[in-house]
Design goal:
Distance between the termini: 55 Å
Number of strands: 3
Helix content: 55-70%
Largest sheet: 3 strands, antiparallel
Order of helices and strands: HHHHHHHHEEE
Strand order of the largest sheet: 1-2-3
Number of helices: 8
Number of domains: 2
Length: 234
């Protein structure tokens, strides 16, 4: 979905540029055919419009299916193999839909390309709500260091209220979910601080101490599960 939405937005940006170029270029020089450069832009615009519609339609369908599946079988989405990727995907697309790239995107007749960012954001919120009681999902969202930011979720809440996209009860449930994610994030950070720095030999790094020229090599014997440590002094 991330790829589809990102490509769709990129195509809409291209559409906006091509539309402006066509508006500023002459329609005809008096001949029956438009100038070659304008004809080329028109062809590019038609092709880009088809691509944008395709990408965004697929993104809409993907989000809609995820909403249905997470509502009916939420436990299937909290397995370790799935939950981290799902959380990262939702967080990243929430950033995109509430960020400047989407806010500043102006194209004629968005509906023509099936692009409704508010509706798409609302469905993404539904997916969060479907999984909000699953602690594995809460933790996965909290550990997404790339895209999770509390202020993004708060911006989403503001949009939901401003445009009446969700009942008050859903917005409050979403805010409660954000609180749970923040709590999980804080506990995770406190746990890391309590552990302190991991000894270098557990990281599989070869070390050389400048004082006594001691070197430590770490070897992993693969499936045996054993590690061997070799020390030597120059």
């Amino acid at each position: 979905m991330t790829y589809l939405l990102d490509e769709g937005l990129s195509k809409l940006i291209d559409i906006n540029r091509l539309q402006k170029e066509l508006e500023s270029s002459p329609v005809s020089d008096g001949s029956a055919q438009p100038p070659p450069d304008r004809r080329e832009r028109e062809q590019n615009l038609a092709s880009t419009e088809r691509q944008a519609t395709s990408y965004i339609s697929l993104a809409n369908e993907t989000v809609s299916l995820l909403n249905k599946f997470t509502a009916f079988v939420p436990d299937a989405f909290v397995y370790p193999e799935v939950v981290d990727r799902l959380a990262r995907m939702l967080n990243f697309n929430q950033v995109v839909l509430t960020g400047d790239k989407c806010k500043n995107l102006i194209v004629k007749d968005r509906a023509k390309y099936r692009f409704n960012p508010k509706e798409l954001l609302s469905v993404i919120v539904d997916i969060y709500l479907n999984l909000r009681t699953k602690q594995a999902f809460v933790i996965a969202c909290a550990r997404d260091g790339r895209s999770y930011r509390k202020e993004v979720f708060m911006t989403t809440c503001t949009i939901l209220r401003k445009y009446n996209l969700k009942p008050v009860s859903d917005v409050e449930a979403f805010e409660k979910f954000v609180g749970a994610v923040e709590e999980a994030k804080l506990q995770d950070e406190e746990g890391e601080e309590a552990l302190g720095d991991i000894p270098d030999h557990f990281l599989g790094i070869n070390l050389r101490n400048g004082t006594n020229n001691r070197s430590v090599d770490v070897y992993d014997y693969g499936e045996s599960g054993y590690f061997a440590y070799f020390e030597d002094f120059d």
